[in-house]
Amino acid sequence: MSIRQIFFKHTGVRRRDDAALTFLSRRKWLAVVAVVLLLGGSLLLLKESSIFNSSSVPSGSPEEQRYDLLQRRAEWADIVSLSSQQPPQSLACRKVAVLARYRQGMEGGSLRECLTESREVLTSQTAALMMSDVYMQLGFPSMAQRAAFEALVKTESEKLRERPLRRLAETALVMGQGELAQKYLTLLLDYRKSRNWARELMPYAHRPELIEQHPVYSKLRHTYEQTNDVFFL
After folding, report:
1. Collapsed DSSP state (helix, strand, coil) of residue 232
2. Which of 152, 113, 144, 117 is nearest to 4 (CA)?
3. Neighbours of 90 (CB within 10 A)
4. How many angstroms separate the CA atoms of 154 and 214, rounded?
5. In angstroms, what CA-CA distances link 137 with 1, 111, 179?
6. Cα 152 to chain center, whole Å?
7. Integer Cα distance of 220 and 168 in angstroms
8. What backbone torsions phi and psi does residue 232 show, to the nearest 5 degrees?
9. CA separation (Å) from 168 to 44, 55, 60, 129, 143?
């Protein structure tokens, strides 16, 4: 079974579906703020029918690659400084800049502004991975999962499949998709850098209740479970 078939079988997302933002209650937004504050940069420091714009560069622009590196390192002050010197052109970079301003406690950093419909922002593999990180930090694992999946199916290099596979495994664990998480973790056993990481997380896939003991994924699970996280219409 291909990765695409695995994804659609276990998530219930139809091929023609696309991510669409739904109304979020005040309770949900309070939960989002809470998880962002609790996680800080810890999530990024764990280490790491297509909706792509066909006219874009699959690997991402130099700007996207630079912002991606900074946000993966949780260097929020540097992102704010960079975006202040020259406003980013990429929509994904602008969303990361908004999140950076929020983390720095600055005006113009609104969590709502970090969200957008996927057709507008998933313009390259790097942009999709950046938005997957943003969505995951905000406590929206279903959107993080879809963005990572889009990055995966557009990746031609076997080496570059490792990062989206790791995110797909994480989101499956957070959303209680144990069988799906097992499949992604099994695929990651073929990657030297992720082999030990995948082995450490495999027990969580076999016994979903163990996620409550994880310092990061437990917080994301609690946020995810507070309201129905429906973004695929």
Report:
1. strand
2. 152
3. 22
4. 31
5. 30, 11, 23
6. 12
7. 14
8. -110, 110
9. 14, 25, 20, 11, 11
**16-51: b (≥16 Cβ within 10 Å) or e:** ebbbeeeebeeebeebbeebbeebeeebbeeebeeb
Domains, the chain, ordered by start:
3-11+25-226 (1.25.40)
Residue 118 · residue 147 · CB < 8 Å: yes
Backbone angles phi, psi at 137, to 5 degrees: -65, -30
Picking from 169, 190, 194, the residue whose alpha carbon sits closest to that of residue 180 is: 169
* One pLDDT digit (tens) per residue for the chain, 233 residues: 555 555 455 444 443 333 333 334 444 544 555 455 455 544 544 444 333 333 344 578 999 999 999 999 999 999 999 999 999 999 999 999 999 998 888 876 567 767 666 567 778 899 999 999 998 988 889 889 999 998 998 887 888 899 999 999 999 999 999 999 999 999 999 999 999 999 999 999 999 899 999 999 999 998 888 755 544 33
Tokens standing for residue 154: 């557009």
Q: Compute the half-sphere exposure of residue 65: CA atoms within 13 Å on the CB side of its CA.
A: 6
